[in-house]
Specification:
The chain is mostly helical. It is 53% helix and 8% strand. Strands 1-2-3 form a three-stranded parallel β-sheet. It has a two-stranded parallel ribbon with strand order 4-5. Helix 8 crosses helix 9 and helix 10 packs antiparallel against helix 13. The chain is elongated and about 75 Å long. Bound molecules: iron/sulfur cluster. The site of iron/sulfur cluster has 13 residues, from helix 11 and helix 13.
Length: 324
Amino acid sequence: MQHPVRVVSGMRPTGALHLGHFHGVLQSWLRLQGEHDCYFFVADWHALTDQVQPVAETAIYDMVVDWLAAGIDPQRTTLFIQSRMPEHAELFTLLAMHTPLSWLERVPGFKEVAERHPSFGRLGYPLLQAADILAYKATHVPVGQDQSAHLELCREVARRLNQVVGAALFPEPAAVFSPTPRLSGLDGRKMSKSAGNAIGMREAPQEVRKKVVRMPTDPRRVHRGDVGEPERCPVWALHQVSTPSAEFAPLASGCRSAAIGCVDCKQVLLDHLLPQQAEWRARAVQHMAEPKQVHWLVEVGTERARVMARKTLRDVREGLGLKV
Ligand code: SF4
């Protein structure tokens, strides 16, 4: 059976997003929403697999505001909240019946998780991810390289259920990799809120300027005449995602010959980064002024997603001989 192209992707509710989220995930979403039928969701059940405190509503809606600020269009995509879809939980249960434990044990990191957070929910969350994806019969899933094992599990689970019901109920979804899976932060390590090395998507310009000015550079560039190597500098990683590529060659050769100083190089970065953030901020301000409208957009998306998930569940129940 030929399944229509459909993309499903979720993000845990982390509150306001940073540049790593934008370049690692949202940029792929923006490209995909222009080409395919997309379902993007707030993975709030997944958040509970790692945290003991309840999920804050502000963490959900601050994140959704940043999706909208980045240009995610609820007219073209379906935005919804995972925990509002009991169909995912039902599908998880039905898939679990046909998923050998050994498949989950093969997922990288299973042993450490079993030692550190041995809750059933945490150990089984790759299967919940499979349910999130298969509830919409997704054909494509944006993933980081570190999640390809999870998608492989999803493909195996889909194949197994298709065999059990004797029909091609589910497609085996393909991975869509991000061109910037890992953006480095202010200190050169992976950008993350917890590492304290992030620049928020809509952080105030004066704060962004301060952060960029303080960023370390190639340690060999101590004095203005010292030559450097862009690849050894965390500022260069931000240029790669913010500065037009036509400017890379003169900047790189200026760094290698000491023709430009780090202050000038950082100013070029700010000249491109700040206007992009100003656009996000302007859109976010509009959405934050109308919180009811944002809730309504998510509400409409959730109901649209429910229609699709219910249809899938009817097919699965019927295939498994359960009363429909
Ligand atoms: S010139 Fe630019 S790339 Fe080179 S070390 Fe300085 S800030 Fe980094």
